[in-house]
Amino acid sequence: MATKTKPKAASSKPQLKRTAAPPKSAPVSKSKISPPKPASKPKIKALRSDLNLAHFRGLLIEERKRLEEELEQVRNRHTDMDNALPEEGEGGDEDTADLASAMMDKELDLSVEDEIEDLLNQVDRAFQKFEEGTYGICDVSGKPIPVNRLEAIPYATLTVECQSLSEG
After folding, report:
1. In whole angstroms, what is the distance from residue 63 CA to residue 121 CA?
2. I want to staple 126 with a disulfide (CB 3.0 to 4.6 A). Which of 11, 99, 152, 155 is the partner?
3. Is pTM, for the whole model, over 0.70?
4. Dihedral over Cα of 137, 142, 146, 151: its sign
5. pLDDT in tens, 7-17
6. pLDDT in tens, 94-146
7. What region, left, alpha or beta, does residue 133 occupy, with left being phi > 0 and alpha being psi -120 to 50 degrees?
8. Cβ-based neighbour number of residue 135 at 10 Å
9. CB 114 within 8 A of CB 70
10. Separation CA 137–CA 45 (nearest Å)
11. In a 3-state reduction of DSSP, which class is residue 13?
């Protein structure tokens, strides 16, 4: 008579393969660990020695002054418009049309004010680049910004190519 062997029942515990323990290494001294270097800044090959930095600093100072004066004029126009607007409930259809026109002018001035503030921030960034020693170097590519571009836009921080890429 043949004896039947019972199949082995599957164990409810998963079988783990045993591997050799990882080799022990010498403890790492904490004084030898240095913080990671930021990877976001482009490597600058050479700083600009071909620029008259005093000339460009003067252009930036003039541009900042011009923008601040323009911003003050726009803000004064806001105050003048606010004082000239009729109070709610006063006047007739003419005052309603004047109010609508004044509100559109104010919206336009707010937009212009935002643009001027953005340009002032760009001028401040250019001054920061002077302090870092990177004025005239593109923030993205690390390449030199052409002198004629800096003459036209002294607060430029990007080459034309990188600027067009950033604008889409």
Report:
1. 12
2. 155
3. no
4. negative
5. 554 444 444 44
6. 667 777 777 787 788 788 999 999 999 999 999 999 999 999 999 999 999 99
7. left
8. 23
9. no
10. 10
11. coil
Residues 32-56: tens digit of each pLDDT: 444 444 445 444 444 788 889 999 9
CA separation (Å) from 113 to 75, 108, 119, 125, 128? 8, 9, 10, 18, 23
List of residues 6+ apart from 53 with CB closer than 8 A: 130, 135
CB 59 within 8 A of CB 154: yes
Residue 108: what residue type?
Answer: L
DSSP, collapsed to helix, strand or coil, labels residue 137 as: strand
In one-letter notation, the amino acid at residue 54 is A
